[in-house]
Amino acid sequence: MTTTWTKWVSVAVVAVGVTWLAWSQQTNAQQSGSTPVPDAPSSTKGQNNPFPADAPKGPPSAKPDQSTPVQANEPQVNTSNIQNVPAGGATPDVVSGRDEMFKISTVVNQVFVPVTIRDNDGRLVEGLTVRDFAVYENGIREPINFFTSDPFPLSVAVVVDLGMPDITMKKVNETLPNIVGAFSQYDEVSLYTFGNSVSKAIDFSAVNDKLSSAIKRSRRPGRSGGGVPMGGGPMNAGPSVNGHPIDPGTPHMQNPRTESRVLNDAILRAAQDLSKRRRDYRKIVFVVSDGREDGSRASYQDVMKVLLSNDISVYAVAVGDASIPAYDTLGRVHLPGAGYTNLLPKYATATGGQIYTEFTREAIEDSYARITETARNQYTLGYKTKSAVAGNYRSIEVRVHKGGLRVFARDGYYPLPPPRSTAQ
To answer: What is the pLDDT of residue 327?
Structure first.
């Protein structure tokens, strides 16, 4: 009984002491005019904003993606070094593949490789991912750090051969107005013509009536006759030594020579102008010709160095004799004194472009749209290469891990010198 009474007395004393202490603090606070100390923050209290209403707001907190829970012991694949841009029409609020390419291209040693994939029936293959590709430079596999299948706007130099036979030029002239419809409003197009020399009909501009008018004005009749000049026969003036007749009294006739066809010079002129265009556009030389080359100042190797140094692909519509399969095979042979009969396959293969051999007017018109569709909708692979002396050729090989597919990509490239500011 005594113990119980003692406990109740102790509790009562403590309660009275606490009450007196609280009354004393409140009285002192009122007399001094100070504010009582607030309670510590509690999760059960209301959400009161401790900052003034006009205080600047900070950036929103990054919330973890909870769609796929991460296991503590599960290994994570590091894909942070790959710029994997999804396919499909990008809007202004979404970064497209070409925008990412433009940003990453500031790296001096970054290499981009446009790739076209077709099945055995010639159809474009879609839906491949970065894991389906492998890139080798000089035989060494390089890690891919950029991948997109986004469509790109085109910067196109259309090159039309005016030195073809008249029957071929008639078909081409009928189809040229339709070439405008192969481009979109986002593309930029220039026009060049060549025969004995190269002429620029119109500089790079949007697809509009001005381009259509320039294409219509560029139409010309083709050459009549042609062929390999003959050195004998009844029209020859007789026996000669070093081109001069033995009999001084015999009239001398010069051997006829066909007109020059400066295909190399025309592609070089177009490539040099393309090298100055925007880097976030896909650059192509679009040739309409039978592929004949004769009389250019520039060699094939000279032109290839400019093309491969500036990521320019050559696409071509091979018409006339070049559209005949048997002739196309023989046309790649160099005939002494007569130039190359068809250089287009060499240009297209080495630069990752493609060539369409068409004979009829309808097929030529259809090939215009197919070329722009192919060039615009390619996979783009990127990798970082080791620095090297500018001008040293490097080979490129692109492989696809799935069977039954054909790969079209450039064979290599020439590194450009570093930017002027970096060199200094």
So the answer is: 45
First vs last Cα of the chain: how many Å apart?
A: 100
Domains of the chain: 81-151+380-424 (no CATH), 156-220+258-376 (3.40.50.410)
User: CA nearest 155: which of 179, 190, 181?
Assistant: 190
Dihedral of the alpha carbons of 201, 204, 205, 211, in degrees to the nearest 10: 20
Both tokens of 378, joined, read 């390619």
* CA distances from residue 127 to 131, 178, 332, 375 in whole angstroms, order as listed: 11, 31, 35, 17
C-alpha separations of 166 from 57, 105, 179, 220 in Å: 74, 45, 20, 9
Place of tokens 């491949």: 128
Strands (E), 55-187: 83-85, 110-119, 133-137, 140-142, 144-148, 154-161
pTM of the model: 0.68
The conformation of residue 260, written as its DSSP 8-state character, comes to P
Tell me how far apart the alpha carbons of residues 271 and 265 are, in angstroms, rounded to a whole number. 10
Please answer whether residues 179 and 216 qualify as being in contact, where contact means their C-beta atoms are separated by less than 8 angstroms. Answer: no
Q: Tell me the chain's radius of gyration from C-alpha atoms.
A: 37
Question: Is pLDDT at 31 greater than 90 in this prediction?
Answer: no
Residues 6+ apart with CB under 8 A from 178: 365, 368
Nearest CA to 201 among 209, 186, 213? 213
Contact criterion met (CB below 8 Å) for 141 and 125: no
Given a contact cutoff of 8 angstroms between Cβ atoms, the answer to whether 319 and 168 are in contact is: yes
Instruction: Note the pLDDT of residue 83.
Output: 57
